[in-house]
Design brief:
The structure is a single chain. The protein is an alpha/beta fold. The protein has 3 domains: 286 residues, HUPs (Rossmann fold, 3-Layer(aba) Sandwich); 56 residues; 91 residues, Arc Repressor Mutant, subunit A, CATH 1.10.10. It is built from 24 helices and 12 strands. Strand 5 and strand 6 form a beta hairpin. Helix 10 crosses helix 11. It starts with a helix and ends with a helix.
């Protein structure tokens, strides 16, 4: 298909990145901006270790950027990842070492706070910035990293800072109504850096001089100090800083979490005060941890990117980020298996779909329009996890022994994606499933049903089909008058696998093996018989 035809498809595609791309194209009037490109920005505060929400913001912005490039291929684009590393450290994060040592650096810009992890990095911010860039680079994102400290100190923001000083009262008129009475009395959009202590000061201004480009304030020792707003001597408060940055860089698109939604009109007003139309904006819902609480950098709750990538391929993480960005989603380890299997399903469908459907397929957006080659995946990740559990797998070779018997044409060299999944399944089992397994003894009714299942499996041929096995299991459940067959399958999960939920048993037994499953049943029945005799 030609680029022209793809552009036509992009004008009608319903996937959310295309919807945002069309809004953006309309905002810029369908032509190249004066600066020569469309600028996408994503922001990050290095007050704590980067978390998966930060990664998601970059991934989603990249999806919109690619959709825009498909929609308007003749308009250049750029993505900036901006680190707000000049912020003063307001509190010591919970999830870092040497917390007591860090207390003495409260108030200093994050680029002036020592790295609590080692002496390898110049500062805490430099350490966190490196972590951020490492995992963005690992996913192949094309972006330009930008440091707030460097931008302020280099003079890149000077022109807009002077304009902000000229419009000091207008900015105050925007900000003061949003604050309480006590905060209003001390508020200033400019945060001076104390020449004596180096701390970021939250103090009122005693005087502002737009002509001289200076502000006057009371320093920590009680003396009045006058400094320029240029050259890195001040930082703007975070809300005005948002609007200032949009104006200074000419940002055309930015997305942020719902926690910013109430402040977005403030950012936009300040950007307009500084003479620039604010960017197109997209608000996404927040990620929640296993307790339903917002994921926080300072708490370190939820999943780190490195955690997800230990248990599943990066493509599955991309799918999780693509799906329903405006819906709050629980982000914990138990969401990983479903994300993997859904990715495989979408990836296998993509090559055979018509172009109109391909651009709606999440995998098209995850891979920037390229077709992934995942090869044959005859076994779901969920089944692999249950196989690892039943086989007590310590390495992937154990799983491959079962897989090649079930699917003779499969092999690590022929199915590299499946081979990756076997490694992830072993990791997931060893770290999570193994420690959570809880077997229970069957009741008298369940023991009789399991005995019948054992006999039924013994009467099957050498390589029975999964459906034949599944039908037999259903028949036994009905024969024992289970009002809800889920209770019968729950019995199989809890007595044979030691878990409350499990796979489609016909498929699992076909993969694990009839003889091996009969051994599991025999062990359960023998243990139950011994327990009954003892009692």
């Amino acid at each position: 298909m030609t680029a022209h035809n793809m552009t036509e498809l992009a004008h009608h595609a319903r996937a959310w990145p295309f919807e945002e791309a069309r809004h953006l194209l309309k905002r810029i009037g369908g032509k190249v901006p004066e600066k020569g490109y469309v600028l996408f920005e994503t922001g990050y505060g290095p007050s704590g270790l980067p978390h998966i929400g930060t990664f998601g913001e970059v991934f989603r912005t990249t999806m919109v950027k690619h959709a825009f490039e498909t929609l308007a291929p003749d308009i250049p684009t750029k993505l900036i990842c901006f680190s707000d590393d000049m912020d003063g450290m307001r509190k010591v994060p919970d999830n870092i070492p040497n917390k007591d040592m860090m207390e003495q650096y409260l108030g200093l810009p994050l680029t002036k706070v020592p790295d609590p992890f080692s002496n390898e990095y110049e500062s805490f911010a430099h350490h966190n910035n490196k972590r951020l860039r490492d995992f963005l680079d690992a996913f192949g994102f094309e972006y330009e990293f930008m440091s707030s400290t460097e931008m302020y100190a280099s003079g890149a923001f000077d022109e807009v800072l002077l304009k902000a000083l000229e419009n000091y009262q207008k900015i105050m008129d925007v900000m003061l109504p949003t604050l309480g009475a006590e905060r209003q009395a001390t508020y200033s959009p400019f945060l001076p850096i104390s020449p004596k202590t180096g701390r970021v000061l939250y103090v009122p201004m005693k005087a502002t001089d737009p002509k001289a480009g200076t502000i006057t304030f009371e320093d920590e020792d009680g003396t009045d100090v006058t400094i320029p707003v240029t050259g890195g001597h001040v930082k703007m408060q975070w809300k005005p800083d948002f609007g200032m940055r949009w104006a200074a860089l000419g940002v055309d698109f930015e997305m942020f979490g719902k926690d910013h939604q109430a402040n977005a009109p403030i950012y936009s007003k300040i950007c307009r005060i500084l003479g620039v139309e604010p960017p197109s904006q997209f608000v996404y819902e927040l990620f929640l941890d296993d307790k339903g609480e917002k994921i926080s950098k300072s708490k370190g709750n939820g999943i780190a990117v490195e955690d997800w990538l230990r248990y599943a391929p990066n493509e599955s993480l991309g799918l999780y980020m693509f799906q329903k960005p405006k819906t709050a989603k629980r982000l914990y380890f138990d969401v990983i298996p479903k994300a993997v299997d859904e990715y495989v399903t979408f990836a296998q469908k993509l090559p055979g779909e018509e172009r109109e459907k391909q651009v709606e397929n999440p995998v098209w957006h995850i891979h920037g329009g390229h077709m992934p080659e995942i090869g044959d995946v005859p076994v779901s990740f969920n089944l692999l996890l249950n196989l690892a559990s039943a086989a007590n797998a310590v390495d992937k070779s154990v799983l491959w022994g079962f897989i090649t018997r079930y699917a003779p044409d499969a092999a690590p060299e022929k199915s590299p994606f499946l081979d990756r999944l076997t490694e992830y399944a072993v990791n997931y089992y060893q770290d999570f499933v193994k420690t959570q397994k809880k077997f229970r003894e069957p009741t008298k009714k369940e023991s009789d049903a399991l005995t019948d299942l054992h006999e039924f499996l013994g009467g099957l041929g050498e390589h029975p089909e999964a459906e034949e096995i599944q039908s037999g299991i259903y028949a036994i459940g009905k024969n024992y008058e289970y009002e809800n067959l889920r209770d019968w399958f729950g019995c199989l999960y809890e007595t044979l696998l030691g878990q409350e939920q499990g796979p489609r048993m016909g498929s699992f037994i076909a993969l694990y093996g009839v003889a091996e499953t009969r051994e599991l049943i025999s062990a359960v029945l023998k243990k139950n018989l011994q327990g009954s005799a003892a009692s």
